[in-house]
Amino acid sequence: MADGKAFSTPKRRLTIEKYSFQDEKERYRRHIEEHPFNHAVEIVIPDVLLGNVNECFQSPSPTQHHCCLIQLPVHAFTEVEFINTFIKNGQFIALSWETRIDSGNCAAILPTGVLILSLDKDTYEQLGLTGKPSAFQKKHRFIVEVNLAAPSFVPGKKLYERVRWCLKDKLELTFKFLMSWTNEAGNLSTGTIHSFFNSYNGQMVRNEVNTQRAPNYKKAPNISYDRSSLTEDKMGPENCDVCDCMSFLSGLAVLLAELIAPDSYVSTLACPEPSRDLKELITHRWTGMITSNSIISMIHSVRNLIKSNDVPWIALTVWGFTDCPVTWKQNEHGHFLSGENFYTFVIFPNDQYWLYTAMGSHDIGL
């Protein structure tokens, strides 16, 4: 039998912060905007009628939005017309789809206009563009960054011509891309991308929504912004600690996402004590490509909902794509075992919130 000591436990990081939405620095907005590639959003709402919830999220709902799924060569993003139309106006994002960050090649374009290529060693050497070794696979993976929005990235300049030649003539990298564009007025206008790339026969993909009542959870943990502690020894008897709350929300997300049977192992996860009885526990989950602007709109809707109803708290969790080349602040992301990169806002009636941020061992910290 193998010696158990030979297997090390994967390192993960969970940070917990406490802030107010009244903070002049708007930390919540910065945290959301610095994590542009979002695959799913779930909101957990205790003791609010389903009709009120649906009405609250009718306007900012991501289900009204589409993304484009188009297979095209990377050099298409270096065309002058594309750069002037999308990169230098509004916010454009693109992410390679059905690619593996730990075993293949991946690509992304950030809202800042930076093209990122995460390449295996063979592809990197064939392509010929200058990059840097991956922080997690220094000998086998390389990261190439090209700022498409730079004033010097124009025809006739050495860098532009070099990038075009490498991507178009030397090695034509092609991926399926999920794409979204928010114009300068702040409106999602992904249909414009679909029309621009009509020669590539792409398709519009609508975000999916799933609303559920949690039938086996008629309780929720008692938590307080001020009185719930990060450590058990400082916790008052009337409130759960912050980490137990996160465990409850994580278990609930797994249960509802997988539709696990009531008698399964995961569904036996107990609500931490002390707890409160609930009349209703509702979850809204959107899946697809969710923009940062949509998430900010949902945060505003949650704040209005919690102020107009007798609700102790509402939790909003955002999951990033597991195979995205970056997470926050353009920091490199690696998959390793699960590729997790997500964050949760627990929002209270006094306009204060907790912010959980979770990353895996193959992530560069914030």
In terms of topology, how is this protein built?
Blueprint: E1 13-20, H1 27-33, E2 38-46, H2 50-56, E3 66-73, H3 80-87, E4 91-97, E5 106-109, E6 114-120, H4 121-127, E7 132-133, E8 141-147, H5 158-170, E9 174-182, H6 190-196, E10 203-206, E11 208-213, E12 219-221, H7 242-258, E13 275-277, E14 281-290, H8 292-308, E15 314-320, E16 341-347, E17 352-359
Antiparallel strand pairs: 1-17, 2-14, 2-15, 3-9, 3-10, 4-5, 4-9, 5-6, 6-8, 7-8, 11-14, 12-13, 15-16, 16-17
* Cross-sheet strand order for the largest sheet: 7-8-6-5-4-9-3-10
Helix content: 10-25%
Mind summarizing the main beta sheet? Answer: 8 strands, antiparallel
Q: What is the CA-based Rg, rounded?
A: 22 Å
| Overall SS class | alpha+beta
Low-pLDDT residue intervals, each spanning 5 or more residues: 231-235
Counting copies of identical and different chains, the oligomeric state is single chain
Based on CA inertia axes, which overall geometry fits? elongated
Mean residue pLDDT: 82
Strand content: 25-35%
* Beta strand count: 17
List the secondary-structure elements in sequence, H or E. EHEHEHEEEHEEHEHEEEHEEHEEE
Instruction: Count the DSSP helices.
Output: 8
